[in-house]
Amino acid sequence: MMTLSPAPARSQTQPLRVLIVDDHPVVAEGWDRITHGRIDCEVISAARPSLGFRAWRTRQPDVMVIDLTMGDSKLAGVRLVQRLRAVGAGLPILVFTMHRSPIIARRALQAGCNGIIMKDSPSDEICEALEVVARGGDYVPADIARKIALMDRPGAALSRPRLTPRELDILRSIAEGLSYREIAERANISYKTVSNVSQTLKDKLRATSFADLVVKAIRHLEDTGDRI
């Protein structure tokens, strides 16, 4: 088991150093406005996961706030959390997302984040989530927590569609949060092939959009015991 390195201690008189990793600059500005007058903090921003990882090393934040979806990747934030935990980063991590899916929320928690808060939450709730996580606690909105708790309830198993080896490989990549371009490069196949197979997967899994396909890909692989 890997030992996580604790975040550097800070004086109670110092502002909370908050690193926002989001590809929309306005989000960091929004956090600055939301926390003003509520929490004494210094907001730092990074526009990409790679920059966020670098900023963690150089700026030594007290807490990180990470968006799940960045660029073409629907789960870029999850992969950043996994990378941070893999190298022993022990600082609190709060996921800031628009996705209310309990499947994606559970994936983020399994990756090692300490809390989840929705982008459409009231300002007071966002600040509460940040403060709880910064103190070392866990924070998950009540409705999401209930949905996660109900996911494994006993029930009749739904019939699962049969997938070809290529469909299954692409489904795993989609569940990892890779874009069509990244999948094509990894599998050494054309973008068009990935797009066509993904459309077939949408039909088989009854997904209405790519975001919905990501959720259903994760659910399908979890139901079949396939490790992503």
TrEMBL record:
Residues 156-221 form the HTH luxR-type domain. Residues 17-134 form the Response regulatory domain. InterPro entries: CheY-like_superfamily, NreC/VraR/RcsB-like_REC, Sig_transdc_resp-reg_C-effctor, Sig_transdc_resp-reg_receiver, Tscrpt_reg_LuxR_C, WalR-like, WH-like_DNA-bd_sf. Transmembrane segments: none annotated. Gene3D superfamilies: 3.40.50.2300, Winged helix-like DNA-binding domain superfamily/Winged helix DNA-binding domain. The modification 4-aspartylphosphate is found at residue 67. This is Response regulator.
